[in-house]
Amino acid sequence: MSRIDCKNIWKIYAGNVIGVKDLTFTCNDKEFLAILGPSGGGKSSTLRMLAGLEEINKGEVLFDGKVVNQLGPSERNIALAFESYALYYRLNVYENIAFPLRAKGLNNKEVDKKVKEIAEALNLTSILRKRPVELAGGHQQRVSLARALIRKPNLTLLDEPLSHMDQRIRAEIRAQIRRIHEEFNNTTIYVTHDQAEAISLCDRLLILYNAELQQIGTVDEIYNKPLNKFIAFFVGQPGMNFIKCRVESQKSVSLKTHEGKNLFEFNGRVDSKYIGSEVTMGIRPQQIKVVEHDGNKSNIKGLVKIIEFQGDNNVLTLELTGADKTRIKIV
Hints:
Layout: E1 4-13, E2 17-27, E3 32-36, H1 43-51, E4 58-63, E5 66-67, E6 78-82, H2 93-103, H3 108-121, H4 137-149, E7 155-159, H5 167-184, E8 188-192, H6 195-201, E9 204-209, E10 212-217, H7 219-224, H8 229-234, E11 241-249, E12 252-257, E13 260-265, E14 278-283, E15 302-309, E16 314-320, E17 327-330
Helix pairs in contact: 2-3, 2-4
């Protein structure tokens, strides 16, 4: 296993397009780190630099304190699983999974044992004798994932490995990935734009947006103490609501409407320098309650515009009465 350090790394493509900008972070030994962000944020570019598939234009990548910038993928002892599968189409599923073990010189008995174990874990036993061309995209992706997880590398890199699977299978495979990680204690970096995947799997989250690091921390830290509005809205389903208001005291803010001023008190304290200032208040949809309007100034009227039925809960989109058509979501 390995500790991974990225120090001020840059990826600059043709035309001076910045793929990754001055990125610094550490993935600790045996840690499961998820790199989360929208498409085009720099996630896959970061992973490819770690894998040795992309040149690092500036900065350093270190495995256990050793700079690996000039080492190719085969010299880094890494395992890869990408969205695009990268399977050997002349080989059947069994031989695709077994390939890295045979390359390491394991005997047939050891290979057979390990292949059957990982195939059972990822529900591939029934298709071991089929060729990739006979499989649907979700099955091919699982074969690619199995081939990556069967090794005991310094680092396992997973780039959107569940993207072509249906929702039910995704949930099952997520649980297996986490179980395998805990069993082998391998250092793992997982790239995804799906926050449900990232949150359910990782020890820590790294948020990338517009090629730059936004925040790194535990799920609790990022959900409850986001460093900026992008993170607050991006992490959480639905995203955080933002309402313009005025700070009245260290423990209260007011929202001005056509009907007057609504005063909201809260736990915690606002820095005194903001008293009297116009600010943006962030509220998680789950923290808003629907009540009968009784004239209480800490309540505010809203008109329900959209109801999204989601099984175990409903998401309401409200337009706040007299607040310049400010819309919020509640669960």
